[in-house]
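Summary of Year 1 activities. Much of the first year was spent building the evaluation harness for sequence design. The harness presents a backbone, in tokenized form, and records the residue chosen at every position. We chose the following record to illustrate the format because it has been used consistently in internal testing since the harness was completed.
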């Protein structure tokens, strides 16, 4: 039995520099929690970029040694690689196209593509230093689409799984990318390609059959005498962690403070990374419409909005940040009173205890992305509602809407519908809240993060088994 190697652009760790001394702390992300059960087992490893650009070999070695103790292996990126491969190709080509923002936000710079290819090769070289035939390799996300085939060329028999955390677009959109064939060929190096939803699977299969073109039967592709399976594995969260966080003294203390400040209002929560795909501006429009056309809610509702800075060197993100600042400023200037502020806006990341206190006290969570692979915030809100109350308003464009059908499901472009959903949510009788929330909590706990990891891993071994059976026929 070989070992398992996890690969993602970022390692699940935060590295802090202090006068040439590097300190490491574990990251709290959902992926890190879920995959912790795998990479922390004997002999298994996780390969990725540690999140800092370090050119000095002695510093690289110092970080590598510390990572080694955590079963983590670094791939170092230069500043130029970071700019071109990560901010360039990954975040100004793949991210917008895959989220259906192709025309407005995409520039197809050949140098971005060159770096994307060379960084994927760089990852391959580090993988090859550690991988052996018989190993299982699980590659994550859109930054590493070429990696499955690059590894396959060198290690034909190794087992490779690939999971895409963002949506896969329709083939009409995907084919806009000048390097679409190379990207598909890269993904097809895997044995199993996983997505959050069946729609993503369908879109991927239609790109493969139209663009490559290759034979596709049901969810199986025949590719160079191998088969590749595409399947949906909706990602879950560690729901127990979010439920038990609400019981911690620090969280309860913060929750009491929030309740005190917002004692006379219905608190609506909005939490996202800064990203145009998250629908923050449309959400603000819906809230503004509520205050404008339904003045009875002025002074009765408040929007608590956390926007976590992200990719803030990319021009479109800087612009979005300015637009949000301006919109929030306008709404607050227009509607605030001496003792009430409509929007409590924070442009920063908050500690997990604050996040939990907000999840457990907000009467409504407003999660309205324009397009989202899954969206974990809505699942975390549900997991934190240990009293079974609260209302989730969820965009139908989030992968999570396929599972969380007891939420109030809205089209984020329809600001009137979103406004109406807010009204329905703040007036929802407790009994209806509880009926819906119990169902939501059931879905979130049944399909949690360990269920996701186990399902993907067993899908991967089944695919390999199927391939071997076909080869011996
Ligand atoms: C990508 C896909 C898919 C947020 N603010 C704070 C904070 N967070 C944490 C949340 C949540 C995570 O960040 C955000 O996850 P999402 O799933 O909502 O969104 P993306 O970052 O875009 O993730 C997405 C996901 O990958 C997994 O496959 O669901 O569709 O786009 O866990 O809790 N955490 C802390 N402070 C904050 O201020 N501590």
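For this record, the design step produced the sequence shown next.
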């Amino acid at each position: 039995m070989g070992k398992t190697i996890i690969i993602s652009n970022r390692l699940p760790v935060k590295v802090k520099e202090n006068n040439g001394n590097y300190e490491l702390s574990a990251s709290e992300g959902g992926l890190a929690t879920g995959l912790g059960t795998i990479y922390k087992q004997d002999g298994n490893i996780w390969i990725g970029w540690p999140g800092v650009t370090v050119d000095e070999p002695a510093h690289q070695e110092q970080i590598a040694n510390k990572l080694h103790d955590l079963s983590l292996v670094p791939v170092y990126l230069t500043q130029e690689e970071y700019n071109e491969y990560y901010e360039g190709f990954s975040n100004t080509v793949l991210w917008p196209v895959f989220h259906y923002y192709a025309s407005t936000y995409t520039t197809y710079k050949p140098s971005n593509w060159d770096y994307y290819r060379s960084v994927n090769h760089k990852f391959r070289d580090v993988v090859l230093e550690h991988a052996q035939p018989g190993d299982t390799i699980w590659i994550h996300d859109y930054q590493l689409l070429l990696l499955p085939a690059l590894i396959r060329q060198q290690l034909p028999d190794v087992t490779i799984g690939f999971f895409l955390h963002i949506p896969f677009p329709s083939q009409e959109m995907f084919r806009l990318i000048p390097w679409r064939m190379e990207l598909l060929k890269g993904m097809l190096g895997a044995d199993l390609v996983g997505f959050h939803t069946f729609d993503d699977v369908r879109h991927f299969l239609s790109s493969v059959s139209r663009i490559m073109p290759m034979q596709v039967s049901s969810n199986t592709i025949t590719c160079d005498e191998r088969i590749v399976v595409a399947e949906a594995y909706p990602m879950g969260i560690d729901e127990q962690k979010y439920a038990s966080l609400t019981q911690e003294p620090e969280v309860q203390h913060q929750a009491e403070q929030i309740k005190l400040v917002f004692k006379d209002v219905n608190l609506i929560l909005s939490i996202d990374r800064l990203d145009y795909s998250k629908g923050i501006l449309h959400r603000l429009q819906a809230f503004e419409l509520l205050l404008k056309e339904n003045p009875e809610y002025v002074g009765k509702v408040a929007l608590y909005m956390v926007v976590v800075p992200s990719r803030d060197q990319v021009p479109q993100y800087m612009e979005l940040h300015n637009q949000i600042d301006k919109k929030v400023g306008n709404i607050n200037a227009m509607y605030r009173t001496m003792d009430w502020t409509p929007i409590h806006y924070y442009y920063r990341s908050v500690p997990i205890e604050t996040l939990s206190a907000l999840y457990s006290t907000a009467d409504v969570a407003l999660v309205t992305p324009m397009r989202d692979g899954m969206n974990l915030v809505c699942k975390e809100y549900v997991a934190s509602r240990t009293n079974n109350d609260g209302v989730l308003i969820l965009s139908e464009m989030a992968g999570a809407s396929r599972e969380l059908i007891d939420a109030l499901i809205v089209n984020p472009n329809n600001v009137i519908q979103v406004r109406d959903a807010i009204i329905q949510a703040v007036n929802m009788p407790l009994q209806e809240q509880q009926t819906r929330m119990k169902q939501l909590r059931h879905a979130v706990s049944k399909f949690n993060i360990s269920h996701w990891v186990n399902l993907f891993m067993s899908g991967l071994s089944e695919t390999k088994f199927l391939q071997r059976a076909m080869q011996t026929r």
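The longest strand covers residues 266-273. Quantitative recovery figures across the full test set are reported in Table 2.
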